[in-house]
Amino acid sequence: MNFDGIVSLLIACIEWILLINLLIFSKKDKTNLIALVMIALLAGYQTMEFIMCNLGFTQQIFPYIAFVIISYLPPLNLFLVLTLASNYKSDWKVILLFLPAIFFTIYYLFMISNFEVAKCTVLYASYHYPLGDLYGFFYYLPILISLIILIKKIPNSSDKKQKLILKVLLYSTIFISLPVVVGFTLMFFGSYAIISSMESIMCKFAFVYALSLGFLILYNSPFKDERNYFKYLSGYKQWNS
Q1: Selecting from 3.40.50.720, 1.20.1070.10, 1.10.101.10, 3.40.50.360, what CATH number does the domain 6-222 have?
Q2: What's this model's pTM, rounded to 2 decimal places?
C-alpha cells in the first residue's frame, strides 16, 4: 500500500475544512481576504502534493502548478503584514510585491519540461526545477522582510488587538522558518537533504501558520458577544469592529 503523500492529504483536508468554515463565518474585509487566499493556497499545495506522490500524477505540469501555488505565499504574507502593521493602502504599487512570483510563473511555463518530482515520502516531496538558487532567494526574501517588520512593529504598537495578532504572526513565521535555518546549517556540513525538499517541508510547517491565519480571521471578525471568545485572550475588553 502506498502511503506517500498521506500527511499532505491529512493537512489538506484540515485546511480545506478550516477555509470553508472561515468563508462562512468570518468578516470579508481586506485583511481577512488576504489570509483566506493564503489558506486556500496552502491547502491547494498539499492537495497537489498528495496527487503527485500518492496518485502518481508526476507529469511536469503538476510540480509546475505546485510551484506556482507556493510562489505567491511569501508576497501575500508580506502584503498581509504591511496591511496589519502600517495600514498599507492597496494601489498599483502592490504589484511590485508579486513581480518575482509573476516572473517565475511565466518563466517556468516555458521551462516546464525541466520540472520533475524527484522523491516522494510520507512526509514531504522533493523536486528538480531550474534556477533553484534564484527562486529560493526571492522566495525567502519576503519572509525575512516580514519578520523584520513584525519585530520592529510589535514593541511600538499600543493597540492590544493589533499587538496580539502581530505576535501570533511573528511566532508562526519564526516557526515556519526553522526548516530554513536547519537546512542551511546542514548544508554547510555537506548535507543537502532538507534544502532539496525545503518548499515541501516549509509547507508542512506552514500548517501551524494556517491555524494562525484562522485565528487572525476570527479575531478580526465581529461576532456576537457570547460567541466572541478571542477578544479576551489579551485582556482586550472593547471590541473595535
Answers
A1: 1.20.1070.10
A2: 0.87
